[in-house]
User: What shape does this take?
Amino acid sequence: MMAKNKEPRPPSYAVSVVGLSGTEKDKGNCGVGKSCLCNRFVRSKADEYYPEHTSVLSTIDFGGRVVNNDHFLYWGDVTQSGEDGIECRIHVIEQTEFIDDQTFLPHRSTNLQPYIKRAAASKLQSAEKLMYICTDQLGLEQDFEQKQMPEGKLNIDGFLLCIDVSQGCNRKFDDQLKFVNNLYIQLSKSKKPIIIAATKCDECVDHYLREVQAFASNKKNLVVVETSARFNVNVETCFTALVQMMDKTRGKPKIIPYLDAYKTQRQLVVTATDKFEKLVQTVRDYHATWKTVSNKLKNHPDYEEYINLEGTKKAKNTFSKHIEQLKQEHIRKRKEEYINALPRALNTLLSNLDEIELLSWSEALKVMEKRPDFQSCFVVLEKTPWDETDHIDKVNDRRIPFDLLNTLEAEKVYQNHVQHLISEKRRVEMKEKFKKTLEKIQLISPGQPWEEVICFVVEDEAFKYITDADSKEVYARHQREIVEKAKEEFQEMLFEHSELFYDLDLNATPSTDKMSEIHAVLSGEPRYKALQKLAPDRESLLLKHIGFVYHPTKETCLSGQNCMDIKVEELLANSLLQQDHGRSNLYHDSANIDKINLFILGKDGLAQELANEIRTQSTDDEYALDGKIYELDLRPVDAKSPYLLTQLWTSAFKPHGCFCVFNSIESLTFIGECIAKIRAEASQIRRDKYMANLSFTLILANQRDSVSKNLPILRHQGQQLANKLQCPFVDVPAGTYPRKFNEAQIKQALRGVLEAVKHNFDVVSPVPTIKDLSEADLRIVMCAMCGDPFSVDLILSPFLDSHSCSAAQAGQNNSLMLDKIIGEKRRRIQITILSYHSSIGVRKDELVHGYILVYSAKRKASMGMLRAFLSEVQDTIPVQLVAVTDSQADFFENEAIKELMTEGEHIATEITAKFTALYSLSQYHRQTEVFTLFFSDVLEKKNMIESSYMSDSTRESTHTSEDVFPRSPRGGSLDYNYPDSEDDAEGPPPYSPIGDDVRLLPAPSDRSKYRLDLEGNEYPIHSTPINCHDHERNHKVPPPIKPKPLVPRTNVKKLDPNLLKTIEAGIGKNPRKQPSRVPAAPPEDTDQSDNYAEPIDTIYKHKGFADDIYAVPEDSQNRIIKVRNSIVINTQGEEENGFSDRVSKSHGERRPSKYKYKSKTLFSKAKSYYRRTHSDASDDEAFTTSKAKKKGRHRGSEEDPLLSPVETWKGGIDNPAITSDQELDEKKTKKKPHKVKEDKKPKKKTKTFNPPIRRNWESNYFGMPLQDLVTPEKPIPLFVEKCVQFIEDTGLCTEGLYRVSGNKTDQDNIQKQFDQDHNISLESMGVTVNAVAGALKAFFADLPDPLVPYSLHQELLETSKIMDKTERLHELKEIVKKFHPVNYDVFRYIITHLNRVSQQYKTNYMTADNLSICFWPTLMRPDFENREFLSTTKIHQSVIETFIQQCQFFFYNGEIVEAPNPVACQPPPSNPVQMVEPMVPLQLPPPLQPQLIQSQLPADPLGIM
Assistant: This one.
């Protein structure tokens, strides 16, 4: 009913819920569900629903404010909105009957009516009655919400009649229905709406429900609503339907059958459950708690909905199940990890199949526990099982719980492990068997595909057993092995054919013809063919080898860390450091020695006799020597002494020396044996460096009896032993003495000891006091091949084990110094140990007095490298060949070793070199005396070697390789560097197959045995098989000391007369050698022409030419100039001063040559390569055809001294003795066109000479005409601009700019990158200045036409002959203006650049002269095949030099420069054959007056006046 207030309030209704009530006898064990229905309607949330409500109460609870002594309960009110949006409030009253828990009878209340009448009451009243919530509320009202029934009274507006349709508890449904019928009758009397609620439909009995429906159908407007308070089905519906009956304005509700409503409700619950479970799934840590998670989720709608429908308890259970699942999942994963890790643990602890094959799992466990690695694989827990301990949370502990091994899964893993070991063993056996099968198949070649091999192994047992993957893996391994072996053998083969590769200079680039020659030679080798299927790899190996040959460094050595240079540096760094440290300790404070400790070694009492003699000459053991008193401590050691010398050596007595006295062969032998034992014990047993440095002195005792006749023999033998031991020998003084020992002998011996001590002190002194360490008397280079099968210590032991060995000067990491007595003096010898590839630069550029060439007798490649290196060594330089093997027995047991040792000895015999063998199993090689004879030979020839070297150096401007050791002091004061040329490979004298005794020309007169020095004195010529004209050829070296007189040679064999006539005819008819007598230029012109050398000398003339060089100082400037003159053949006998005889003599004596022309073995080896590659050569190839040979046309060459290459572009060498006949040449030239037609072979006979194309790729820029690369806006090619800019920005001061070759690969890469991108930055490429300079030169070399047009060459040549300098320069300026405009602009640009380079000559050493030598062939593109051109090459070079010097005059209207460079560019004389070249002034001690020198010279030695 609505209250009558001013403000409208929602209507309020009171509903009374009634049903069967009473004692247990009346209603059974449980009620009909009235309380649950009310509870679910008023408080629908699951957490607020209580399924148990008791009606049995105590008297206190019955009288409490909740029950308030009434038999009804006030459940509170519910505000409800209808479908039409109108709200209403429903108060719920439950009519029940409370039973006394004592009497089990209904409690007495104010209303004593029976339940049926009491339940039908429409008005209820109870003051301060509280709302009922649950049974627990009774007696604890203060702990629950307290809400009073409104105004203490309610008017009932409708009744909800509950009928329990479940089975019931000790209750008959008919009795209930009968009770309900009576109750309905009473309710209907009130005229209030009634709704029947069928309760507990979730446990419904169908016929009970039908009876209820039948009961309702018999009543008017009686509706049955099927409900379930437990599942909250239709609870709200029944109350809503009752309200509609009470308020007719509301829409009639739709009564939904129980099953449909239940499905709807369950779907709602399922949806909420799914959402909640997904929400719970977000929790991944099984350690999470419900309290933490619920606090995080309490505001989430899905969480709240599920809590409302199902309650917190179910939510918590759901969460707990999820957490348990997480934990079990974690345990499962850990267990899986442990089981998976168990095989690895078993492999670690039980990997031996033989040990465990028969063991059970329990036995295997016991074995594992005893393993030392057990604790690293397993953990034994105190508590078990492991999955209930905290070990499951130790994720970082990967050890397996040991109790897990007691499971079936672990035992199964063990069984699988044993089976795996068995099968793996079998698999490995089969794989190895299959590998051996592959090794037996000879048809498998490197690089052969697997598919081609299957047919060979398809029936093999092992192949059938293993899998395809295994078979392919084994074959791949086999292929790697045979490929690696084939590549190693191929590399070894390349070294064996070293003569093929080492015939070009360093930094050279092999031409296409050279590559064809290499392939032609190697193609016949089986090791070459073995890589046929790997042709790209083979080509890569070959190119890598060639790149290393022409650009060798220890960083790029093909042997890697086995490079000889690296090993030598490491060994010397360690050995010399230890030696120097030992010596410094031994000889510390030895400079001011006051006491001398001496051993005296002798036999038959000689030692004691000498000791007594010394004591006789002493005073209280003090000996006076050279004004100083020395205390002597003498220890005689006799042959019969029970102590060895080494045993007498103590810390208190360290001897400074040992006197070894002898007077017979027996005593001398005894001394030699003792010294050998001492040194052996010092070097091997005790490793005592102090003892190794002990100085020995041999003393010969005087003979007083008839034995004196043996004195010469003893003297000779003693001297020999002293030389071998490198110690002093004290001889018996002349005269007769009564005693065995003389005072002079003793003093001489003591002085020797003091000198040795002082020497050893000087060696370790940080500041040398005797002389600079760099001033070595001899410079020896020892060469060894990288990768040879012997240790570096073996070949260096003769030096390192010597007491006179010390470190070289700082920075010389590969050198050591020896102090040895050679001849009569102690000499300092610098030994530089290098690999052969590093020695090549030394061979060309450095002063070397001798070579020790080491090779392994076990390796053909080692001998091949030795041959290649030795072939290019000057035969003036002594050589020692050393073969290395294990023992002497190898020579007799191994044919290959025998062959290589025999070959080495044979070569040594042919070239008159020393030969020795070192054996790794022997100790003899540790003696320094191994090379004593070689050092003596080197010392004898030292002057001749230096003279030859200094003469050769006149043609070099700067060194192209880094110095390995310092220059000789004689060659270090040059002010002017002569340019490099292609004549570095020296021209050979004719090789005679008959022998060294053959003389090609008749012996000259005796007058030719003498020469003139600069003072006009005659001195005899020392004639040896390897003599060269020391003083004639070398203006830098002072006149040598007078050598031994010429010894006439006996039994001189005669040459074939026919060959002799050919030689004489060639010499007599050679037009280039004819004398040309013209008046010399005036004195002032001499100065102008002194900057030119004969072009044939500068470019092609090799050092073997018989041109005489004579030093002539010029009057006015006191400058020594060098006059080169052609050979003058005296057909009428002698001329004045014997000059003609001396010139003739030059043909009788051998000039310095190379060893390959002195050794048949070396020469034939080099020649064999030529024959193999040119057997089918055409007429335009390097050598003439057989037809040409038949007609007698000969040219000298490096391969054959009787031949000469036609292609002079490759640097052919004219033989000084065999020359061609001009008339025959002319006749052949005339006949050549007819030959071409007959043979139908095209000839490259064009006026324009085209050099070989250096590029091996197609280019749309390089090699294009110059006009195509420029525009009027950009007259200079972009590539030229970039290169010049880079050089001037970064490398204008680079030493040897444009002369030192850059890396060929970098040069090509620069051009290739520019081809792809013209905007590329050279700075970003990281290339060197020399590489950019080389690429720039290559650009001009690739142009179709030279920058200086051929049409103007003749004009330039003629203009250069103009004697007046000013006129000549103006004429040249007019010729330059005739250039094509494009050529002119580029020529001006590049000449200007070269001028800027020359201005930095003090740092880059590139004068205008040097630059012109490097650039004129590139700019003018000479035709080297034209014989007429050879006589004008120097003039062409001088033209470019003039342009560089006078750049400002020619192109910028500047003044004529007088002397822009140290050597000014001046015009050549009219006859280019007659030239003078300036020489560096020679500092002769004392200085000579030019007038005195000139007065001694012949008036006109060259006949030019």
Summary: The first strand starts at residue 12 and ends at 19. Residues 1063 and 1218 are 5 Å apart (CA to CA). DSSP finds 56 helices and 30 strands in the chain. The chain has a mean pLDDT of 75.
